[in-house]
Amino acid sequence: MIQNLLQTPIEYLKGVGPNRAEVLKKELNIKSYRDLINFFPNRYIDKTGFYKINQLQRNSSDVQIVGKIVHMKMVEQKRGKRLVADFVDDTGKMELIWFQGHKWIRENLKLNTPYVIFGKTNWYNGTFSMPHPEMELVADYKKNLRTAMQPVYPSTEMLLKKGITNRVIMKLMQEVLQQTGLKFSESISPGLIEELKLLSKAEALFNIHFPKNQELLAKAQFRLKFEELFFIQLQLIRRNMLHKQKIKGFSFDQIGEYFNDFYQNHLPFDLTNAQKRVIKEIRSDMGSGAQMNRLLQGDVGSGKTIVALMSMLIALDNEFQACLMAPTEILSIQHYNGLKELCKNLDISIYLLTGSTKTSKRREIHEKLENGEINILIGTHALLEDKVKFKNLGLAVIDEQHRFGVAQRAKLWKKNHIPPHVLVMTATPIPRTLAMSLYGDLDISVIDELPPGRKPVKTVHRYDSNRLKVFAFIRDEIKKGRQVYVVYPLIQESEKMDYKDLMDGYESIAREFPDEQISIVHGQMKPADKDYEMDRFVRAETQIMVATTVIEVGVNVPNASVMIIESAERFGLSQLHQLRGRVGRGAEQSFCILMTGHKLSNDSKTRLETMTSTNDGFEIAEVDLKLRGPGDLMGTQQSGVLNLKIADIVKDNSILHSARFYASKILKEDPNLSEDKNLVIKNAYSRLVKNNTIWNYIS
Q: Which residues form the Helicase C-terminal domain (predicted)?
């Protein structure tokens, strides 16, 4: 019964009608009674007290007063007229002013009748006034659903233009809550409600719209935020569990010759505790009989490659092949050279396949791959081509996973009759809160410590006026045999301007350093030219690399010890952190210099202060999340997951952790939610999955 009522189209609610319904649908996506109930206020005005006119302060604050209008008059002004009313109580007199809507107000306001008025006061010429007050007859005020905390709903220009004010929304909300009789069935089990001392669904919905006091409002907000995050986590964790049940993986139960020989005899340095922990997690996954789907997060230089190699050696020990896919040719060549070096004393066949691999070499690779002579294949998107057939692919490693779409990853799945294990790696630290919401259905491993002996990059902020000192510093570093990056921002809308900035920068560097060889790399160059310039820098044929952000991901030049970032205020935090990661790869002390003008916004100052105070990518990612919000941080393709109605994953971090804890606990004890005590959750969950949106299961 209540379900049917909630599905009623919004035009049938008293006070709406076809015209208002059209605006509500278009502006707020409110199509039914249920949509309206789940349209939550974004703030509240505290109306707990009444003022007397003689208590008013000259501070332009919101006040509520009871009194009567004793006189009204029209006053001429430069443009048009204003309506002025004398409003009195037993302590004094003030003015109410309207600049428009005079006719309606004159016809509808009653003289000498008690009103409750609410609004901002002004002090002018010895008198208090209130422009366009909210007004309600005391008789109506006493009858209505009353709350001391008045909700304020999100609005738009069009809504106000069509007369759908905050007061109108409140009236509609009152009407819909009265029609439903607050008979909302529960969506959280009695045990959980008791354990967390949550309000019932009905109490929470009533108090979110018409809170009786601050305490009940806080409890209502907690209940609804917890519920929203709980069902999202339930969905993500359940998807992960089903994935493991349904999608069988190869069981790698052998840890054999390749892995042990490398670990005991050829590992170039001791693994950090974080690396050991992550390898253990991967071993356990690959031996479980379910397909591994793991995200490996690790800051630049934290040693993800060695973890990837050791995971590949487990595949080889179980007589399977492995592949590693990188987003660019230069990065795949770097991986290839790095892994060849690490495996030089092992009997392992490693090949490289990219877009520019010669046809004759391709044929050889295709043949050897199919007959099992190649153990590890490294490459770019070229690995995804249908012609590339493995004899027995057991593990696919994907580097910088945000550069590859889901469809591309799915192609790798089809490279064997049972999908290979998948390890996706990223050097872009994702805050824990965000990772739990976006990748809650992937298992996540984090390498959160740098190998010993790595010196943190020293980061300083310098203004343009210090440029000569910065040039002198660059000169000293080049004399020591080091190399330098100079990076310019790139903003799509103004490529011409950016190109000009880059070329101007290149010319001034060339003038300043006439004896040095300089490489230049930007997005408008042909890939082959770009690779040629990059390669010259890698081989130390050039001392300075002037570039746009195309060098953000990947290239490893241990000899480059200085990163100059021009117009650093135009970069986001994660970009600045990624760029800084290009230096600090050798044993020498490295430096990152952030150059800016003197005019900086508060957000820019926060970003620069964060960069100069910490090298911790996760700390930086948390600040970035606070500054930009989750949607911006992950890009539009991901933000759908975070289309939250009431919770905020930054501010409600602790509620998110609690929601994930209880969702995990319940699914561990009862994976199919089939026990009686979880029936309420199961019903709500089924409706949620069916309707595909978190708030549609409310009933």
A: 466-631
Q: Cα(115)–Cα(119) distance, rounded to whole angstroms? A: 13
Distance CA 546, CA 562 (A): 12
Same domain assignment for residues 471 and 582: yes
Burial class (CB in 10 A: 0-12, 13-18, 19+), 510: middle
d(CA 171, CA 203): 19
Residues 46 and 213: their CA atoms lie apart, in Å, by 9
Note the pLDDT tens digit of each residue in 378-421: 999 889 888 999 999 999 999 875 556 666 767 877 888 888 99
CATH number, domain at 514? 3.40.50.300
Residue 666 domain boundaries: 209-247+645-695
Query: DSSP assignment of 440-465, as one string?
Result: TTSEEEEE-SPPTTPPPPEEEEEEGG
State how beta strands 376-379 and 92-98 pair: unpaired
Tally Cβ neighbours within 10 Å of residue 373. Answer: 14
Question: For 417-432, how does the pLDDT look when each residue is reduced to its tens digit (9 = 90+)?
Answer: 888 999 988 877 777 6
* Phi, psi dihedral angles at 453 (to 5 degrees): 90, -15
Find tokens 């590859």 and name the residue. 404
CA–CA gap between residue 532 and residue 340 (Å, rounded)? 22
CA angle centred on 286, ends 283 and 290, rounded to 5°: 145
Name the residue with tokens 């990748």: 439
CB 17 within 8 A of CB 177: no
State the CATH number of the domain containing residue 134. 2.40.50.140
Which residues is 150 bridged to in the sheet?
45
pLDDT at position 107 over 90: no
Bridge-based pairing of strands 458-463 and 591-596 is: parallel
Closest by CA to 490, choosing from 502, 474, 508, 475, is 502
Q: Is residue 659 a contact partner of residue 666, using CB atoms and an 8 Å limit?
A: no
Residue 248 is given by DSSP the state B
Residue 471's contacts (CB-CB under 8 Å, 6 or more residues apart) are 512
Pick from 658, 682, 655: nearest CA to 670: 682
**Distance, CA of 388 to CA of 325 (rounded, Å):** 13
CA distance 300 to 34: 47
Cite the beta strand spans of 121-183 per DSSP E.
122-124, 127-131, 134-137, 149-152
The structure tokens 């919905």 sit at 205
pLDDT at 214 over 90: no
φ/ψ of residue 65, rounded to 5:
-135, 145
Question: Is residue 79, in this structure, part of any structural domain at all?
Answer: yes
In DSSP notation, 543-582 reads SEEEE-GGGSS----TTEEEEEETTGGGS-HHHHHHHHTT
Rounded Cα distance, 148 and 48, in Å: 5
Q: What does pLDDT average to over the chain?
A: 86
CB contact at 8 A, 625 and 633:
yes
Same domain, residue pair 173 and 241: no
Taking only the tens place, the pLDDT of each residue in 578-610 is 888 888 877 789 999 999 999 898 889 999 999
Radius of gyration of the chain (CA): 32
Closest to 397 in 3D by CA, of 484, 308, 461: 308
Residue 470 and residue 342 share a domain: no
Q: Are residues 40 and 93 in the same domain?
A: no
- Does residue 447 contact residue 304 with C-beta atoms inside 8 Å? yes
